[in-house]
Amino acid sequence: AASAKLDSQVQMKRRTIVAALKQGLTPQTKVTALCDGASNCWNIIDALEPLSASIDKILDWFHLTMKIQNISLPPSIKPKLTRIKWHLWRGNVDRAQQRITELTLLCSDKAADKLRKLSAYIKSNEDKIINYRERQKKGLTFTSNIAESTVESLINQRCKGQQHMRWSREGLDPILQIRAAIASDDWRKNWETIVASA
Asked: Do 5 and 169 touch, CB atoms closer than 8 A?
């Protein structure tokens, strides 16, 4: 499911519901949702709630660790940041927040600002931070790194960074629909023959 429209996520929610129904979503389905922590992502997941039995919302470990990795610290205190990651890996949010507060006092203004932003990010998603270690032991999903590579191929190649090609939202949306259909195998099942025959 993909959308580039500025429509308060109406199309994105609709397309996500359609995709979930195609995958077999029923009122008895227990959904596990991994998101990057942005409220717009959780809003899309919330749209599935009335159609499912329950939704386990998990802050994606990939995105959580990226927030931590983007903080540069002197080598002398870098291990303290690793300790914060260790606490989060085990779902110890309070302990991680305590360590962030302690570390903030030892840092430059720039690093302290990044640590405060990390703390705010954790606070806004604390009910979605789980014991990732236990999930990994049980063989359960706790990261979306595979999905991230799909997003990269669907969107980022042409639409972000220093690429030469620029798209308007109106022009990009149909391209995203085609790319999403190809990635989800809908293209081969439903559209390839029609387009080829036309």
From this structure: yes
